[in-house]
Amino acid sequence: MTDVERLFSYGTLRLPRVQRETFGAELPTAPDTLVGWRLGTLRITDATVLALSGASEHPILDRTGEASDRVEGSVLVLTPEQLDAADRYEVDDYVRVPVTLESGLAAWVYVAR
Q: What CATH number did the domain enclosing 15 receive?
């Protein structure tokens, strides 16, 4: 059986077009929530990401530690190779870190570097 990775997405990686171009397929997803974080905005200048996402501003996470701060999103189930593809898609302003979601699932998430 192939190893499975989980990635919490709150932005463009949830878009079917971005998934098809980045991962080669639309991925299984489930709704979940990240507690103790809030969304900010990041201006994107990478031409490839701009063309694929169609947006020059992307959301970015900042940790607050406050239980009242919650970010809704989706858990993407992917292979280690697809996780590597997500790393290539995200610009250098993001860093991937492990988190525990409200559901109790362990997942990766991209946050402000």
A: 3.10.490.10
